[in-house]
Specification:
The complex is a heterodimer of chains A (454) and B (492).
Chain A lengths: L1 E5 L3 H12 L3 E6 L2 H10 L3 E4 L5 H6 L7 E4 L4 H14 L3 E5 L3 H4 L2 H11 L3 E3 L1 H14 L5 E5 L4 E7 L11 H7 L5 E7 L2 E3 L12 E6 L1 H10 L9 E5 L3 H12 L3 E6 L2 H10 L4 E4 L5 H6 L7 E4 L4 H13 L4 E5 L3 H9 L4 E3 L1 H17 L5 E8 L4 E7 L20 E8 L2 E3 L12 E6 L13
Helix pairs in contact in A: 1-15, 7-10, 7-15
Chain B lengths: L2 H18 L1 H9 L8 H22 L9 H26 L5 H12 L15 H16 L1 H8 L8 H7 L12 H28 L7 H12 L16 H14 L3 H8 L3 H4 L3 H21 L6 H16 L14 H13 L12 H19 L7 E3 L2 E3 L1 H25 L7 H12 L20 H15 L3 H6 L2 H4 L4
Antiparallel strand pairs in B: 1-2
Classes of the chains: A alpha/beta (454), B mainly alpha (492).
Chain lengths: 454, 492
């Protein structure tokens, strides 16, 4: 597909990397010729230097023949304007990143804007990140939680700690011990990702993905004795947009939130927007202040300043105080993988979330004829993917028991949602039309449900 | 440096290039050049040998880590060009047509770099398949050996732009479509399309009685034109052919000197942007003015005006497009005309074409740099960017164009100096030989003029001139970096 990406910042970089990897023809627009130079050096793309709100620039980038136009510059207004122009010029689909809460405050307003601009998708990365953070805080022991089929199905990523029930157990034995319906569908050991079979023995240090429906999940986690109470008291460093959205969710759920920021103006604004939150004016990097504000009695600590390095260091400090849950916002991919190697397990990146959404949209567009892709998550540090499809009538392998399907290696059907009922599939289950199917893939690019068959 | 990927790509290039030897093998079979004549045998031996060698190299060095930077690009290109020149020289040696390896190497480098300078004293004694191979090296070398390989083999690295950039001539290399592989493909399609058109025009010229070229002659001369090479198959180059043939070749030489982006823009119907390029207009104006000046200068040497204009135009387009075909011995022309030809040698054609020389776009930049310098001398505080086609040129490109020109002239001086040790050659021959090799033209003036050859030079001079051709074709930097010791250090 021909895709034009306007704005080559951090998000643009991740999007371009993912889209070229998937084999799309990508054109990049940016005003800065120096960053475009790096783009051409690193990726197989063509670059156009200019303002993406400018008609001539858009024409030069051949927007009128583009299947998809993605605007991710730093300015909401330019994103909206360029998407509007791109659409008028003939781009098939337009996606804009719109971050300012004022454009997003209520769903009515934002949907009006989206309609009038004829946007295919408006992405608010901070809101998405806050939602993900909120999910994690609900289940503090998980590294990550992904939801499918409108929250009827979940995948929880866990880190196996030494000397727990999961350390050194074969999956077959695990199933005998816990009778509930669940599936260990993916394991990351070191840098390798495996789709495990029954004889696979788990070890401490493994990162595993478990799928189940939410009710069963609670039971399973309880039996694994790793269910922990929801985080009630949360400390957030940095009064950013993510913190605003996250605090809103947390406060609405009746938790207490403490926000620390060094900037007077931001603190004022935040206290006006969130009267119930405790807003503290001070330097979040000041350990004395953190101790004074009771970091040791918090249930969770979230580092959300604008600087990756500061977030990482703050999180190490919080970890040293043995807080139950420490979450770090890291935008640069290289830093994120380094931080997780050094022992920070919960890392979120709003930029990566944005990129994931764009890639998912691109893939869904490409296979618009086959089964419809509903969701796509990059899991296990981006080494595997969790995808959700709705089975169309055209799917050829319906009503065949799964054990008779010749699926690819490193691909597993982790769940089938039929109507409102989630099924953890066994060899005798079948795929029926209109089912939602959750697939985990390590290493293959899956565009369509049929891709899982050899 | 990522040596593995360099060697991996290198191996793939060699095995792909060996497949190109199948074409002369086919020609050799068609003309029955086997048995006593060793043409077929030598092509087959070299093709099989280099295919196996290439396969082994790329198998021994699998590309695990696929990242590459500018340095790897330079290395791949230099290695590949040196290897291809050696491989291409072997059939000449094995078959015994050019028994000395250095002579054969010179001839092959001259072919791949699309120079067209020859050491052969009697071209017509070579077998048909050998002559075909000689011209075919022009065709491959014109658009680029590696660009060709990139267009056919699956992409090895995301960053193959570095290879493309190292091989393609011109101050800046822009892709015309997002993917390097597709860009390479499109360029080759345009290239092959234009060549086929020329073959057809020449061949049908004979069919309709205005031309003299049969199919073989048409193909061989079109290869020579397309790569802007200039190897002929007759002792007097194109002088023996009809005016129709000469006009067709003359016009196509001009066309192959045009930036290929222009053709691409024409194909996708963006005619307006195609003709907006100032480089194109400067190039065409230089051709028109030079042809006019030379016509007046040589008018009294010829009987008819038509022949005068034709010869003037043909020589001008042949030299500026750095091809090197000739329809007359221009060494007999007055000094004024020869001087103009010498200047055209240095300018060369447009960037992004198959031609050599400094390139019109770089010359335009140099003049703008000079103009800016003069202005800032008068107004020391003036801030002035350089624009071409109403677009700002970044300072990086500006300074590398200036540096390129300086190194270019320094190297010319150096080579002329080395050639100075020759006993039998005067300075006019040496200077024109250097310029003709460096700019990938072929024939020079005086003793290396269109009717003579480079045979008389010593082996040292032949090697030096071979490297001059490679320096000119790869635009100096890749070769210079390859041979500079600092690039070979582990830490640099």
């Amino acid at each position: 597909m021909k895709i034009v990406v306007a704005g080559y910042g951090k998000v643009g970089d991740i999007i371009v990397a993912d889209l070229t990897f998937e084999g799309h023809d990508v054109t990049v627009i940016d005003v800065d010729s120096a960053v475009l130079q790096t783009a051409t050096n690193m990726y197989d793309v063509i670059c156009v230097c200019g303002n993406c709100g400018d008609y001539d620039t858009l024409c030069e980038a051949d927007v009128k023949n583009a299947d998809m136009f993605v605007a991710v510059t730093g300015s909401d207004e330019i994103n909206m304007l360029s998407c509007f122009l791109a659409k008028k010029l003939g781009a098939q689909n337009t996606i804009a990143r719109i971050r300012n809460p004022e454009y997003n405050n209520n769903s009515q307003g934002s949907s009006f804007v989206r309609q009038q601009l004829d946007l295919s998708l408006a992405i608010n990365p901070e809101l998405m990140a806050a939602q993900e953070l909120f999910n994690i805080l609900k289940l503090p022991n998980a590294v990550n939680i992904e939801t499918f089929a409108k929250r009827k199905f979940e995948m929880v990523e866990l880190l196996i700690k030494p000397d727990t029930l999961l350390d050194g157990i074969a999956l077959l034995d695990l199933r005998k011990k816990i009778s509930d319906n669940f599936l260990v569908c993916v394991v990351m050991r070191g840098n390798e990702v495996y789709i495990p079979d029954g004889s696979f023995v788990l070890k401490a240090g493994d990162r595993i993905g478990i799928t189940a429906d939410p009710v069963q999940m609670q039971k399973v986690l309880k039996k694994l004795s790793i269910l922990q109470k929801q985080a009630r008291n949360v400390m957030i460093i940095g009064a950013s947009r993510v913190s605003y959205y996250l605090s809103r969710f947390l406060l609405a759920a009746g938790n207490s939130v403490k926000i620390i920021d060094i900037d007077r103006k931001k603190c004022d604004e935040m206290s006006k927007l969130l009267p119930k939150a405790n807003v503290i004016l001070g330097d979040g990097a000041d350990q004395e202040l953190l101790l004074e504000e009771g970091i040791t009695i918090m249930d969770a600590f979230v580092a959300l300043t604008g600087i990756d390095e500061e977030n990482i260091l703050l999180s190490f400090f919080a970890s040293s105080k043995e807080l139950p849950k420490v979450i770090t916002k890291v935008n640069r991919a290289e830093l994120a993988s380094m931080a997780s190697k050094l022992g920070l397990d919960s890392i979120i990146s709003p930029k990566k979330i944005t990129a994931d959404i764009v890639v998912r949209y691109a893939r869904a567009l490409q296979n618009s004829k086959g089964s419809k892709m509903e969701t796509l998550y990059k899991i296990m540090d981006g080494k595997a993917e969790a995808l959700e499809f709705i089975v169309e009538d055209s799917f050829k392998f319906v009503n065949i028991p799964l054990k008779d399907l010749n699926t690819k290696k490193d691909v597993i059907i982790a769940g089938i949602i039929r109507g409102r009922k989630p099924i953890i599939p066994t060899g005798n289950d079948v795929i029926e039309p209109n089912d939602r199917v959750v697939v985990i893939s390590a290493g293959h690019l899956i565009d369509d449900l049929s891709d899982i068959i050899k | 440096m990522n040596k593995r990927i360099v060697l991996h790509i290198f191996g793939k290039i060699i095995s792909t290039v060996s497949l190109l030897l199948l074409l002369p093998i086919f020609v050799a079979v068609y003309y029955g050049e086997y048995g006593n004549n060793k043409s077929l045998l030598s092509f087959a031996v070299v093709a099989i040998g280099s295919f196996i060698l290439g396969m082994i190299i790329s198998k021994i060095f699998p590309a695990k880590n696929r990242t590459m930077f500018a340095k790897e690009g330079f290395f791949v290109v230099t290695l590949a060009w040196l290897a291809v020149s050696v491989i291409g020289a072997l059939p000449f040696v094995i078959s015994g047509y050019i028994p000395n390896f250095i002579d054969a190497f010179f001839e092959t480098v001259s072919g791949f770099t699309t120079t067209g300078a020859s050491i052969l004293t009697d071209v017509e004694s070579l077998s048909k398949s050998m002559l075909f191979w000689r011209s075919f090296t022009h065709f491959i070398g014109g658009m680029g050996v590696i660009v060709f390989v990139m267009a056919v083999i699956p992409s090895v690295s995301d960053r193959s732009i570095h290879i493309l950039r190292a091989e393609m001539p011109g101050p800046t290399v822009d892709k015309i479509v997002p993917r390097a592989k597709d860009t390479a493909k499109i360029l080759y399609i345009i290239y092959i399309g234009l060549t086929l058109l020329q073959i057809a025009l020449l061949y049908f010229g004979k069919v309709f009685g205005v031309g003299k070229m049969g199919l073989y002659d048409s193909v061989v001369h079109s290869f020579g034109t397309a790569g802007t090479g200039g190897f002929g198959i007759k002792a007097d180059s194109l002088a023996g052919y009809t005016p129709y043939d000469q006009w067709v070749v003359g016009i196509f030489m001009v066309l192959f000197g045009v930036n290929f982006n222009v053709f691409f823009l024409l194909i996708i119907k963006r005619t307006l942007s195609a003709f907006k390029s100032s480089e194109l207009w400067v190039y065409l104006s230089v051709i028109a003015v030079s042809t006019g000046l030379i016509t007046f200068n040589i008018l009294d040497m010829y009987k008819t005006g038509a022949k005068t204009v034709r010869d003037a135009f043909f020589q001008v387009s042949s030299i500026i497009s750095t091809t090197g075909f000739s329809t007359t011995d221009f060494d007999l022309w007055p000094t004024f005309s020869k001087t103009i030809l010498l200047l055209l040698m240095i300018i060369g054609a447009c960037g992004g074409s198959t031609a050599g020389g400094i390139k019109v776009s770089r010359v335009i930049l140099i003049f703008k740099i000079i103009k800016r310098k003069l202005k800032t001398l008068v107004h020391p505080r003036m801030v002035k960017g350089i624009t071409v086609d109403k677009k700002a040129v970044d300072e990086e490109t500006v300074s590398s164009a200036a540096t390129y020109t300086i190194i270019y002239f320094l190297l010319v001086v150096l080579i002329v100096f080395i050639l100075g040790f020759e006993k039998n050659f005067d300075i006019e021959s040496n200077l024109s030989a250097t310029l003709a090799c460096f700019n990938n033209i072929g024939p020079g003036l005086a003793k290396v003029g269109p009717t003579s050859s480079y045979f008389g030079y010593s082996y040292l001079s032949k090697i030096v001139l071979s490297f001059a051709m490679l320096l000119g074709r790869l635009e100096i930097f890749p070769l210079l970096l390859f041979f500079s010791p600092s690039s070979w250090r582990k830490v640099s």
